[in-house]
Design a protein that fits this description.
The chain is α+β, with helices and mostly antiparallel strands and 173 residues long. It has 2 domains: 48 residues, 2,3-Dihydroxybiphenyl 1,2-Dioxygenase, domain 1; 95 residues, Roll (2,3-Dihydroxybiphenyl 1,2-Dioxygenase, domain 1). The protein has 3 helices and 9 strands. The strands form 2 sheets. Strands 5-8-7-6-9 form a 5-stranded mixed beta sheet, covered by helices on one side. The protein has a 4-stranded mixed beta sheet with strand order 1-4-3-2, with helices on one face. Helix 2 crosses helix 3. The longest helix is centred in the middle third of the chain and has 13 residues. The chain is globular.
Length: 173
């Protein structure tokens, strides 16, 4: 028998071992926009969005000054951060680019638009926004059929700006 998590179950947070706490905070707070909600001296910090206690935990308890794991080893593939709308995703994409952080790629999965990059410790990061659920691709039986179509980051940001300018999108808040 396969266990099934109950409806409403969510992934609460990700906790990362980092080599340099201040450098990691500069990335997750300064670039991605997650404010520090609690800092434990020079050993750990917790960051959250929208007043939540934390979505991201960072610590140097076992990793201060350490190198990232080499390619081909087990570990975190990426942490995925869901933004509330296209405008918010476009804004964070622009902050990442302005910070000089390279993108590993981008894709439209049919259910979402996503960009991929690495944090300062080499951890994979996915920044994404879901498409409206009624637009998700399905087969003839109604089963979800995700795709991995190319997505131009430059075009996505430019189209978002156009949509804001002509009123097809509104900035939240």
């Amino acid at each position: 028998m396969t266990a099934i998590a109950p409806a409403g179950t969510r992934v609460g947070h990700i906790h990362l071992k980092v080599a340099d706490l201040d450098r990691a905070i500069a990335f997750y707070e300064g670039v991605l926009g997650f404010p520090v909600t609690l800092r434990m001296g020079n050993s750990a910090a917790f960051l959250g969005a929208g007043g939540y206690h934390h979505h991201i935990g960072l610590n140097v308890w076992e990793s201060r000054g350490a190198a990232p794991p080499p390619p081909g080893h087990s570990g975190l593939y990426h942490g995925a951060y869901l933004y509330p709308d296209r405008v918010a995703l476009s804004d964070v994409i622009q902050r990442v680019a302005e910070a000089g952080i390279p993108f590993d790629g981008a894709a439209d999965h049919g259910v979402s638009a996503a960009v991929y990059l690495r944090d300062p410790d080499g951890n994979g990061v996915e920044l994404y926004v879901d498409h409206p659920r009624d637009e998700w691709p399905t087969d003839a039986e109604g089963n979800l059929t995700m795709v991995n179509a190319p997505l131009s980051i430059r075009d996505y940001v430019a189209e978002t700006k156009e949509m804001l300018a002509d009123g097809r999108l509104k900035r939240a808040g």
